[in-house]
Every structure is written in C-alpha cells, then in structure tokens.
Amino acid sequence: MQTFLNVGVDVAKDAVVVACAEQRFPVQSVPNQRAPLRAWLKSLPAGSRIGLESTGAYHELLADLAQAQGYTVFLLNPLETRHYAKAMGTRAKTDRVDAELIARLIAQEHTRLRAYTPPTANQRKLDRLIRRRATIVRLKGTLKLTMDNLGGFAAELKAVMGKLDALIAKIDAAMAALAACSPQHQEAQQRVETIVGVGPVVGISLTNTLERVPFRKADAFVAFIGLDPRANDSGHKAGRRRLSKRGPAELRRLLFNAAMSAIKTKVWKPIYESYRTQGWSTTASLVIIARKIARAAWSIHHYHTTFNPERITKCLA
Q1: CATH 3.50.50.60 holds for 6-112
Q2: Cα–Cα dist 235/109, whole Å
C-alpha cells in the first residue's frame, strides 16, 4: 500500500496553499514561516514528493526545509505549469486550483523531472546578483530607447546612465568578491574564461550554473539554457526550427553577447563566416556560436580542462 504522498504547493509571500493528489488530507493554508512549515512537513509520510513553482525568493524556505527533511522536492517553471493547466482543460486559476494541479503534475510526471538540490549560500547570492544585474541592464536599454530622438535631455540622460553604469560596476565587483571566496569556484571560472569571447561576468554565470546543476551531457546544458532548437514537423511538413528559450534568460543573453564578442577574434570569425556563407542569418549564426561556447564551457567544467581552439576549428576542415 502506498504510504507516501504527492503534494502540490502554491507559494505566496505570507502563506502557502497545499494539496495532495491522493486526497489524504484537505487543502490547507500554512504560514510561510519556518516553524509552521516544519510542523506541517512533519505531518507528511516519509518519502513524499513535493512540487512547487519557482517564485522569486518566496519558495526557498519551504524547498530548503523539505529537502533537508528528506522529501523529494521538484521546483517547477511557472510557464510549464500553466501549459500543463491548459492541457488539462483547467479553466479557473486560484491558489487551491494551482496547488491541486501541481500535485497532479507531480504524481503523473515525477519521473521526468529533476529533483531540487539547494544551492550553497554563495551560489544563491551570485544568482540573485546576476538577476538584479540583468534587470538594471534592461532598464538601461529601455531608458535609452525611450529618450531616443528627444532633444533637450542629453545631460540628464548621460547622468542617469552614468549612475546605472556605476551600479552595474558595483554589482560586478560584488560578484567577483563572492566568486573569490571559493577557490574551487575561482579555478573553475578561470578555466571557463579561457574560452575566447568569455569574460568575467559570463564566466561567473556559466560556472555558477554548472556548479549548481549536475548536467550529464553538454546537450542537457544547452537545453537547460534554452538554446536548443525546437522541432516543428508534422507529416511531410518540416517546420521552421525555433529556440525553446526555456531556462535562465539572462544566461542566454550573456552567451549571445559573448558570441558577438567572439566572432571578432581569429578563432571564431572563420566559423561565423562559414555559417554566413552557408546561408545562415546573422542572428542564427550568432546563436550557433553561443551554443558552441556553452558546449565548450560544459566540457571544460566537466573534464577540468582548458579551451582548445583546434577542437573548434576542426569543423572548418
């Protein structure tokens, strides 16, 4: 007889709503605080599976407590949960409905999901800094576009941009200091940065992700980032391939920027020009280079090697 449960959790700042796929206990609301969460977790049978969506930082306390007490935790992408809800014909969206849906998803699909492993304190801090940096970079771009061709504000715009650049530089310094706290991370980052086109910010982001999640193959890492092409075929139709764009959007952006920098070098420029000659667009060629950089980073991190340009240029032979 099954004793464990498949539990779905809808997380909010102040409370979490929990539901069970097996309906062994009623849907209930638990304060999103350490003591109430611990008491609720103790009421679950050993071996239970718990699913919850990634919601900024609000999910972290429950995910960490549940994993520490021996439960299998699945951290879900909210976008994928919404797609699952549509596939199941769910019409309403409430905390209770979401919790029940997550419980059902975990019960049916747990074999296809990756179990959650808590990051270290430094990994979590680095991840937060990377995400905050991404927000400021987006704000810079939006502000520049908003003020474009609008006369009379050049001095003010320059001052604001300078402040934002200083803030980004301070975040970069904080990330470098955190990375330096771990000799293992620093060594891994230095190896990744031997890839031509990869600088400190990209190196920190790549290394933090590779240390955080144990990818078995380079393909898994590429798919995690969302740089994998998604097939769209049916019968005799061969549809256009588009990127899945799942996973960390900022890491995709950083890799694309790294590719733009890389194609100016003698290592990557011939490869880029080769794809352009074959008819690939500028964007598609840059995505291919970004994907190759990601694969090289996984290989370097996995095998503790450094970048070998000859392996990259073999494709031109």
Answers
A1: no
A2: 27
Is the model's pLDDT at 317 over the cut of 60? no
Angle (deg, nearest 10), helices 218-225 and 249-262 = 110
Q: Which amino acid is located at 28 in the chain?
A: Q
For 195, the token pair is 């890839």
| Whole-number Cα distances in Å, 216 to 27, 32, 303 | 37, 34, 12
Q: With bands split at pLDDT 50, 70 and 90, how would you rate the model's confidence at 242?
A: confident
The domain locations on the chain are 6-112, 120-181, 184-317
Say how far apart CA 304 and CA 62 lie, in whole Å.
34
Q: Is 158 within 8 Å of 182 (Cβ atoms)? A: no
Q: What is the pLDDT of residues 32-51, one digit of tens each?
A: 999 999 999 999 999 999 99
233 strand-pairing partners: 238
Q: Hey, which residues does 237 pair with through a beta bridge? A: 234
Burial of 154 (0-12, 13-18, 19+ CB in 10 A): exposed
Residue 23 has what pLDDT?
Answer: 77
